[in-house]
Design a protein that fits this description.
single chain, eight-stranded antiparallel β-sheet, 29% helix
C-alpha cells in the first residue's frame, strides 16, 4: 500500500537520474568562482556590508546567475560586485590578495550607460574563461565599483612584483576590452593603495 501524494521509488530514481544527467551535460570551468555584493551602509562596519551571493563552477551556472542579477549599470551608487576564486575574499587583507595589486579601468559618468555593462561582462568572461594563458593562477578576481564620480572596474592579481605575469595580464585584458592603443591603463599595488595619503596613486606598471 502506498500513501497518496508520496512519490514512488521509481519516480525518485528517475529524478536522481535526471539530476545526474544535467550535471554531466554542464560544461565545467577550470575554477570555482564566488560572486560577492557590497552595499555601502555607513552605520555598519565595512565587512558587514559585504555578502556572498553564490558560488558556481560551470558555464551554464554562470549564465544563469548573470541573467538573473541586476546589471551593474542599474546598481545604486556605493555598490560593488566582486567575482573571486572561491576561497579568496574580495579585500586587501586576504592572504591571497595582500601581496598583489589591480589593473584599474576608470570610466566617466557618461560611460555607465554605453560601456559599463559590456566591459564588466568581458572582464567576467576573461576570468572564468582563463584568458591569461600560463598566468591564470595569478588571477584572484575582479571588482566593479559603482560611484557617483565615476565607475571603476579592476582585475586583481596575487603578486605585484611578478612583472612578467602582471604585464601579460594587463596587455591581454586591454586587448579583450577593445581599448585603443592610445588608452593607457595602470596597475596599482594594494600596499601602495592602502597607504596612499592622497587621491593620486602612482601606477606600478602601465600598458
Amino acid at each position: 500500500m502506498r500513501l497518496k501524494g508520496l512519490p514512488r521509488r521509481e519516480d525518485k530514481r528517475k529524478q536522481k537520474e535526471v539530476i545526474a544527467l544535467e550535471r554531466v551535460q554542464k560544461h565545467p570551468l577550470q575554477s570555482r568562482w564566488a560572486l560577492w555584493f557590497f552595499k555601502n551602509v555607513k552605520s555598519q562596519p565595512w565587512q558587514c556590508n559585504l555578502r556572498l551571493v553564490t558560488t558556481f563552477d560551470t558555464v551554464e551556472d554562470f549564465w544563469a546567475l548573470y541573467t538573473h542579477i541586476q546589471l551593474a549599470s542599474k546598481l545604486s551608487s556605493g555598490c560593488d560586485y566582486s567575482l573571486f576564486k572561491d576561497g579568496i575574499e574580495p579585500m586587501w587583507e586576504d592572504s591571497k590578495n595582500k601581496r598583489g595589486g589591480r589593473w584599474l579601468i576608470t570610466l566617466s559618468k557618461q560611460q555607465r550607460h554605453s560601456d559599463l555593462d559590456s566591459m564588466w561582462l568581458e572582464t567576467l568572461l576573461c576570468l572564468i574563461g582563463e584568458a591569461f594563458d600560463e598566468y591564470n593562477e595569478e588571477i584572484c578576481g575582479a571588482v566593479i565599483n559603482i560611484r557617483a564620480k565615476g565607475d571603476k572596474i579592476a582585475i586583481w592579481t596575487r603578486e605585484s612584483e611578478n612583472r612578467a605575469a602582471v604585464t601579460h595580464i594587463g596587455r591581454v585584458y586591454k586587448e579583450r576590452l577593445g581599448l585603443s592603443s592610445k588608452v593607457v591603463i595602470g596597475y596599482q599595488a594594494h600596499a601602495d593603495t592602502a597607504t596612499k595619503s592622497n587621491s593620486l596613486n602612482k601606477n606600478k606598471f602601465v600598458v
